Amino acid sequence: MLFIILFSFSGYAQKTQEINYDSDRTLKNEERYPGALILSKVENQVYFDHDGIEVWCDNAVFYKEANFFKAYGNIRMQQGDSVSMTSNYAEYNGNTEFAFASGNVSMRRPQTTLETDSLFFDRIKQQAYYRSGGTVRDTASVLTSRIGRYFMEEDKYSFISDVVVTNPEYTINSEQLDFYSESGHAYLYGPSTIVSETSTVYCERGFYDTREDRGHFVKNSRIDYENRILKGDSLYFNRENSFASATNNIKVIDTINKSRVTGHYAEVYRDKDSVFITKKALAASLQERDSLFIHSDTIMITGKPEKRIIRGFYNVRILKEDMSGKSDSIYSNQETGLTKLINLKRFGDKKPVLWSGSNQMTGDSIHLQSNPKTEQLDSLRVFEDAFLIQKDSIDGYNQVKGKVLIGLFEDNEIYEVNIDKNTETLNYMRNDKDEFIGINKAEASSIKILFEAKEIKDIYYYNQVNGKLTPEADFPPNSRKLNGFNWRGEERILDKQMLFEGEEEPELIKIKGIPLPDEPDKFFDEREKNDPLLDKNSRLNPKVLKNREGDSLKFKNEVPVDKLKPTEEKEKENSTQQNKEG
């Protein structure tokens, strides 16, 4: 008894639901359409109903035994409240719940409209598919592609080949794009660009919210602005706020001023023309003869290209061809050519320091003045407690101190130093044969020092108060350093690697990538020969219902059936033409 009940239930469950229909006029033409009913509109359209789908059309050929129909003229399909479709021609197989439509096909969902010349619709999978080019319109954008697939349960479109998204503010070109119509979220795969009037985004994997105009990009991603290029392992972009941020292995390239900033976290505000970068931040002004490198915990760059200002905060280190320095903070104005090394006393009272050749200069602040046109160093000024130290060839130091120090440069090489107010000197003196003759200690109101090949050549004292040359043996060792002496030669920066010396490598954030989409099942299932997706009476060649590259299924001679009374030869001709196009 149990076996009989289960068998009966199984047979009932597998029974295919028949297509219901209603028509003002019903005819038969066994010679033309053996086993079919020819249905036509008089006042009301022909109507079909099958398992939740409704179809209206002007004319139809209905193969009742096969549970299959072909519809012509002003066709409208409706599946519940969520999907409606119009076309010039359509076919539907009630056994497989598979449909095909062609000629001005328009499928509408609450958020989107799909337009194409031919569309396949699998009701069991709840998927629609085209491969002959299509256009999807949503509330914000228009999307086109050669191949497209719509997953109704996910409300998702998957576009492949020649994908273009057109928005009033930007255009997206992508190799593959998945679009969720309810949220407006788009996922980009393969080489992709987002081009607007003010920027171009490139990535090989990314996410973009087409309604909020913001995105996240990974894998070879970059953003090109009018005068800047931003690169990084991970980029965030907000069009409305003109804001972008980058994480890990960042480069911000200034295409006008030929400068570059690197680090591991950056923020760019396009409208403010500003860049903030940290985590091993390094700014490089790439000049033809002498590049300048600035490293600090944090670097900020603001202003238009012709008025660019660079600020560095905390543990600043700079390097030029034959000059390097350290300070707490730095300010550099590219319009005026002025660079300031500043001590904000955040980490103690360690004064800014500058090395040039064997010379060390320190003070409360140091100003470097460059020529804005040639970008070569003109002069430097050291304010408050200026101290110049030069290591002598023997175990000693030439020293000059005062209130203010002014240095002059030619071809980026110091040739003169003037020290003013309360100056003191201590020098290891030599005769004309370069023989050491003693130590001279002197005081004056001001001093001029001339350099040759970065070595002290002559010293001139003005309004000298006192001075005395003392043999080395008679000069007490504990008096050989002026008050405030602090030789920091071991800190001198000689190459780019030393800009980061003593610092721990920053801990990089683990980038959460955008995974590749799962490979979907093939749209056209492999079916038995006696169980075709449509029917043997379909206008489609069975080869069309195979998974293959894009094609065109624009059928010719689509005339309503009630106006078409072709000869048998004409029908064969039409069939042959359609098979060729398939």
From TrEMBL:
Pfam families tied to this protein: OstA_2
Record domain Organic solvent tolerance-like N-terminal: where: 41-175
Region annotation (Disordered) ranges: 520-582
Extent of Basic and acidic residues compositional bias: 520-538, 546-582
Protein name: OstA-like protein
Organism annotation: Christiangramia salexigens
Taxonomic path: Bacteria, Pseudomonadati, Bacteroidota, Flavobacteriia, Flavobacteriales
